[in-house]
Design goal:
Chain lengths: 419, 243
C-alpha cells in the first residue's frame, strides 16, 4: 500500500499534475463466484479506467480498486445492484497524496535543520524546542518528547526520553538550565542529547545501557528565565514568578526544593538571587520535576548540570554532614572527574556541596537523594571565572565532549550497580 | 562566616597591630582556603600584573593559610574590627614570573594615545562570551582593575569569582579614554559575581594606566544605574577603528 502510494506520488510529481483528484479507493467484499465474475468483467472494461490495487483472485478475499471520478457512479450502482458490499477506503486519493508530499517535504526540512543545527552555538528557546522535534524525527525509535507541565509564564516544559521500550524501566535523569544564565549547561545538554541518539547502536556500552534503562533529559528546567536572559537580562538566574509581597520577581529554583527548605544558604529576601520562595516546591517548574520523579518511581540516578566552577558535587548542601553513601559517591565522582579531565586536561574538584562550595539549603539533588535516588550528582561546568557565565561559544563543544566522559562514567556505574 | 560554624578551630582574633596569632590547618578543598587564596591573587594581580600577563594558580596544595601561593607567600589577615578594612596582603614577589609583554603593551598604549575621539565600548564580553580582538586589551585592563575592587571588597563571607581563576566574571565595559599627561584614564562599569550570595553587583571605576606604572584604580563605587544587558547584546566599540 505504502509502496503504491509512493509510486503514485512520484508519478504525480513527475507530471506536476493533480492526477488523482476525486479518485476514490473502494474495498469490495467477494462473497461468492458470482461476485468474482462481476469484478473480473469490470476489470476488462478499459473505458472505466479502474486500477485494482488488490485484484480479484478468489472468493473470501476482498478487492481494493481505485476508481476515477467519471466511473464512480457506474461502479457503485453496479455493486449495489448485485448486492455486493463495499466500503470507501479513501475518499480522495489526491488529498492523501498532497498530505504525504507535505510530510515528506517537512521531514526533509527537519532533516536539513537537524544537520544544520549548530551544536557549537547558543540558541533561543524556540530554536531549541524546534530542534527537539527534529531529533525526535531523526530517531523515532529511540527519542520521544514528554511534556511534564507548564512554566509560570505558560510555556511547555519538555523532557526528552531515550528508550528502547519496556515498561517503566529503571532510569537516569539529567537536567540542565535550572539557573537561566548558565547557558553552557543548556548547550551541553543539547549536545549530549544528540550524542546519546547517535551512539545508540554504535557504542557498545551505551547500547547495553539503553537496552535495559531509560534516560530522561530536561534540557531547559527554567524556560521562562532562559527567555528572559535573551530578551532582557543576560545575568538572570531565578524563575520569573511574581512574589506577593514584593516588586522583585523570581525564586531561586535550586533553593526551592523540600530539603532543609529555608535553612542556611538561602535568602528570605524576594529580591535576592538565592531567594528560596514562599514554601517548598512553590515554583511550578520545580513541582513539575518533583511530580514526574515521584510518579515515575524508578529513577536510579539524578544528575543536575550547572555552570560555572568546574565541580562535581554530591549531597548534602543543606547540612554539612556526610550522607551514609559518602564514600561511594565520592569514589564515583572522582572517577568521573578523572574521565572528564582525560580529554582536555580540565580539572574538576569533587566533593559534597557543603564542603566544596557552601552550605545551601533547598537544592534538587539533596531532595532526590533523601527520596531514595542514591546516585544524585551535580556538575558545575566550565570555567572557573575568567568568563564565568559568559563562556565563549567556541568552548561549548569541548565542554560537552569532556562532560560526556564524566556523565558516561557515572551512568555506567549506575548500570553496573542496580538497587 | 565564622569558622566556628564549620566545626573547625577557633577563628583567629586579630588586632589591628597584627599581634601573634595561631595558624590553622585547613583542608585545601575547603572554601575558606580558596577564599583566602583568591584575595591574595587579586592583590597579586593588582600590584604586579601587566595588561598581557596576569596570575592564576593551580590547585592549592598546602594545608595552611601561610602557604597558599605556589611561588609566593601571602599572609592574609582579615580584620575583625568594626570598620571593615581591606584584608592586608603581603605579596612577596618573584620577578622571574613577570612575562615579557611590554612590547604589546607599549604598542597598545601608543595606539590609544593617538585616538582623537574618546573610545566608548560596550558589552565586553558580549552575551555569547565573544570578545573582538581589538577589545581584548580593554577587557584585560578591566580584569586587573576589578581584582583591586574584589580585594578591597573581600571579606570572609564573600567569594568574588571562583577558586582557580583571578578574573572578574563579567566586564560591561565603557572605557572612556582621556589622556592625562603620560597616562590613559578610563571609566569602566563592571559586573562582579559573588559566589556565596550569587548576586551580581555593578561597580563603576576610574582607572589610570600606562605600561610603565601599571594599573591604578583611582576610585570606585557601587553603581545602581539600570544598564540593560540582554543576551542578544553584541560587543561594540567606537570609534570603530582602533588602529
Amino acid at each position: 500500500m505504502k509502496g503504491l502510494l509512493a509510486f503514485a506520488v512520484i508519478i504525480a510529481a513527475v507530471h506536476c499534475q493533480k492526477l488523482f483528484l476525486g479518485n476514490q479507493v473502494l474495498r469490495i467484499k467477494v462473497d461468492d463466484d458470482e461476485h468474482l465474475n462481476i469484478l473480473k468483467s469490470l476489470e476488462n472494461q478499459q473505458h472505466l479506467e479502474l486500477d485494482f490495487w488488490v485484484p480479484p483472485s478468489k472468493t473470501g478475499l476482498s478487492v481494493d480498486v481505485r476508481v476515477p471520478p467519471a466511473s464512480l457512479q457506474v461502479i457503485k450502482h453496479s455493486l449495489e445492484a448485485n448486492n455486493m458490499q463495499y466500503s470507501v477506503m479513501i475518499e480522495d486519493v489526491q488529498a492523501i497524496l498532497d498530505e504525504e508530499q507535505e510530510q515528506m517535504k517537512e521531514n526533509r526540512r527537519l532533516e536539513r535543520s537537524a544537520k544544520s543545527f549548530n551544536l557549537g552555538a547558543y540558541h533561543t528557546l524556540d530554536t531549541i524546542y524546534n530542534w527537539m522535534d527534529t531529533l525526535k524525527a531523526q530517531y523515532p525509535n529511540l527519542v520521544s518528547k514528554i511534556q511534564i507541565g507548564w512554566t509560570y509564564e505558560h510555556r511547555e516544559m519538555y523532557v526528552l526520553k531515550f528508550s528502547t521500550g519496556g515498561l517503566n524501566r529503571p532510569a537516569i535523569w539529567i537536567d540542565s538550565g535550572i539557573h537561566a544564565r548558565e547557558w553552557v549547561s543548556t548547550a551541553t545538554a543539547i549536545w549530549t542529547a544528540n550524542k546519546i541518539a547517535t551512539l545508540y547502536g554504535n557504542d557498545a556500552s551505551l547500547t547495553t545501557l539503553l537496552n535495559r534503562m531509560d534516560i530522561f533529559l530536561l534540557i531547559t528546567a527554567n524556560p521562562d528565565g532562559y527567555v528572559f536572559t535573551h530578551t532582557s537580562n543576560r545575568m538572570w538566574r531565578k524563575t520569573r514568578s511574581r512574589n506577593s509581597a514584593s516588586s522583585c520577581i523570581g525564586v531561586d529554583p535550586n533553593r526551592n526544593w523540600d530539603a532543609g527548605f529555608a535553612g542556611p544558604g538561602a535568602s528570605t529576601n524576594p529580591c535576592s538571587d538565592s531567594y528560596h520562595g514562599p514554601y517548598a516546591h512553590s515554583e511550578v517548574e520545580v513541582k513539575n520535576i518533583v511530580d514526574f520523579v515521584k510518579s515515575h518511581g524508578n529513577i536510579k540516578s539524578f544528575i543536575s548540570i550547572h555552570s560555572y566552577s568546574q565541580l562535581l558535587l554530591y549531597p548534602y548542601g543543606y547540612k554539612c554532614t556526610n550522607t551514609k553513601d559518602y564514600k561511594e559517591l565520592d569514589s564515583i565522582g572522582k572517577s568521573a572527574a578523572s574521565a572528564l579531565q582525560s580529554l582536555y586536561g580540565t580539572k574538576y574538584q569533587v566533593g559534597s556541596i557543603c564542603a566544596a562550595i557552601y552550605q545551601a539549603s533547598g537544592g534538587s539533588i539533596d531532595w532526590t537523594y533523601d527520596n531514595g535516588i542514591k546516585y544524585s550528582f551535580a556538575f558545575e561546568l566550565r570555567d572557573t571565572g575568567r568568563y564565568g557565565f559568559l563562556l565563549p561559544a567556541n568552548q561549548i563543544i569541548p565542554t560537552a565532549e569532556e562532560t560526556w566522559l564524566g556523565l558516561k562514567s557515572i551512568m555506567e556505574y549506575v548500570y553496573d550497580h542496580p538497587y | 562566616m565564622n569558622w566556628n560554624e564549620r566545626g573547625t578551630a577557633d577563628s583567629e582574633q586579630l588586632s589591628q597591630d597584627n599581634s601573634a596569632r595561631t595558624m590553622k590547618k585547613l583542608n585545601p578543598s575547603y572554601y575558606e582556603t580558596t577564599r583566602a587564596a583568591q584575595v591574595a591573587l587579586h592583590c597579586m594581580n593588582y600590584q604586579h600584573a601587566s595588561l598581557f600577563c596576569h596570575f592564576s594558580y593551580e590547585t592549592v596544595k598546602s594545608s595552611s593559610l601561610e602557604d597558599v601561593m605556589r611561588i609566593h607567600t601571602a599572609k592574609i589577615l582579615f580584620s575583625h574590627t568594626e570598620t571593615r578594612m581591606a584584608p592586608q596582603v603581603n605579596c612577596t614577589y618573584d620577578d622571574t614570573a613577570k612575562a615579557n609583554t611590554t612590547d604589546d603593551e607599549h604598542a597598545f598604549y601608543e595606539r590609544m594615545r593617538k585616538q582623537e575621539k574618546l573610545v566608548d565600548g560596550k558589552y565586553i564580553p558580549d552575551g555569547h562570551g565573544n570578545i573582538p580582538a581589538e577589545m581584548k586589551p580593554f577587557w584585560l585592563l578591566g580584569q586587573i582593575a576589578s581584582s583591586y575592587v574584589m580585594w578591597q571588597e573581600s571579606s570572609e563571607s564573600t567569594l568574588y569569582n571562583m577558586q582557580q581563576e583571578d578574573a572578574p566574571l563579567i566586564l560591561l565595559l565603557f572605557p572612556k579614554q582621556r589622556t592625562e599627561d603620560d597616562f590613559l584614564d578610563f571609566e569602566y562599569v563592571v559586573l562582579l559575581h559573588d559566589i556565596v550570595s550569587q548576586e551580581i553587583t555593578q561597580w563603576s571605576m576610574h582607572i589610570r594606566w600606562n605600561p610603565t606604572h601599571g594599573v591604578k584604580v583611582l576610585n570606585y563605587a557601587q553603581d545602581h544605574r539600570d544598564i540593560p544587558f540582554p543576551g542578544t547584546a553584541t560587543a561594540t566599540m567606537s570609534p570603530a577603528s582602533l588602529s
